[in-house]
Design a protein that fits this description.
Secreted protein; mainly beta; signal; eight-stranded antiparallel beta barrel; 8 strands; 142 residues
Length: 142
Amino acid sequence: MKSYFLTNTIVLAVVSFNAFAQAPSCQGSTRINDLRTLLPGKTVCASRDTEKWQEEHRGGPTSGQLWDYKMGPNDPIDPTEQVGTWSIVQQGQDFRRVTYTYGVESYTFEVHEPTAGVYNFCGIGVAENIIGATIQTNPQCP
């Protein structure tokens, strides 16, 4: 009985620690309430595990095409291509949510800036959090 209790306590502690360690900074005080000047014409550079994104927000001020830069527009193997659309959704007086649509799947985020120049895309509903993104005017991420 002691062994079972100790094992479950250790597993719970590890799970709790991992949840705490991965908890994003998605506090209301860091939320950007007007995305209309942050995203249009800019590229979001982000990664999670082995996935990396370089998504250009073409159009604006509240919607447009979403392009993946990949290896660049002139690359013969992996050229830049449109992967979906984006739209900024108004919430009350704010324009604080962005929805990305890839085919039939859509993901909605609120964007937070816990540190100057570092952005957390905090998922709403089924969207997973994207932590530590950067936003730049150059279509190619560093």
